[in-house]
Amino acid sequence: MTPEKRSIASDLLLAIRLAWSFGYIIAIPAVLFGFGGAYLDKALGPSPLFLILGLAIALTLSAFGIYRRVKEIVK
Length: 75
Hints:
This protein is mainly α. It has helices at residues 3-44, 49-74.
């Protein structure tokens, strides 16, 4: 393999790993806090309040997690 092909293959694998980790950083908080908020809304009554609050918390955590991950990569 030529160095160019090896570089392209390693860059592709790096991009796939980053996309996979970003997916987890976004999906896990969204699922946990989204379902948690929906459960609390169903149990306590104030319809979309906890769902919206949970998704806002998930968005904040995801943004912070992606910021930290990108900061590590840029080093």
